[in-house]
Design brief:
By secondary structure, the protein is of the alpha+beta class. It has eight helices and five strands; from the N terminus they run H-H-E-H-E-H-H-E-H-E-H-E-H.
Length: 212
């Protein structure tokens, strides 16, 4: 008799075409085109848990996440508008329009880059782990039939916004990830060609650098 764990291992060893199909079909849905509902709590937890499964050199967990729904998104919109005026001397009219940035999609997850110096791991490696965490959530959302989009923009670099969200001085906003329901399947966008982006083998070096 095969136990459940052995069955799962066998399935993984045989490959998983469905997983590959999800990876090959992932597509961002513009947050402004999303409609409700957003993912329920159980589904959102599944999405967030995938962010905890990424490569993380040194086990530093250089990331954390803030989940906003309902009125909390509106509060963030007000924070962004106030920050625009405080930092950029933007007119109140333009700032007022930016209040809607945080309410584009039904559910918002703010990805926070939280680097650690506990071990001698370069910051750029920690950023890679942060990016992988965000990508995992996008892939998980696609697998669960949830629309998603990862946005950055001015608000992600604002220290006023960061402070308003309780970030430490070393922390940064890695992005605003929106989740919701898509009204219709998004159109595919142009993708780079395989041949232009992939090289097999070490490129031929200049003769001066050839091994002796």
């Amino acid at each position: 008799m095969v136990n459940e764990n052995e069955k799962n291992d066998f399935t993984l060893n045989q490959g998983n075409q469905k997983t590959l199909d999800v990876l090959m079909s992932r597509r961002s849905v513009k947050a402004r085109d999303m409609v409700g509902p957003g993912p329920d709590e159980e589904t959102l937890r599944k999405i967030l848990k995938t962010a905890l499964r990424v490569p993380d050199h040194g086990k530093l967990t250089p990331w954390r996440f803030i989940v906003l729904k309902g009125e909390d998104r509106e509060k963030l919109g007000c924070l962004i508008a106030d920050a625009l005026i405080a930092e950029n001397n933007t007119s109140e009219k333009i700032a007022e329009k930016m209040k809607g940035y945080a309410t584009q999609g039904p559910t918002l997850v703010i990805a926070i880059f939280s680097p650690s110096n506990e071990r001698p791991i370069p910051v750029w490696e920690q950023w890679l782990s942060m990016g992988a965490a965000c990508q995992n959530m996008l892939i998980a959302a696609t697998a669960l039939n949830i629309a998603s989009q990862w946005l950055t923009g001015w608000a992600s670099t604002s220290r006023t916004v960061a402070t308003g969200l309780g970030l430490d001085e070393e922390e940064q906003i890695a992005g605003f990830i929106f989740f919701g329901t898509q009204k219709s399947p998004p159109e595919e966008r142009p993708r780079p060609t395989f041949e232009d982006q992939v090289t097999f083998g070490i490129p031929t070096p200049p003769k001066a650098n050839e091994c002796q």
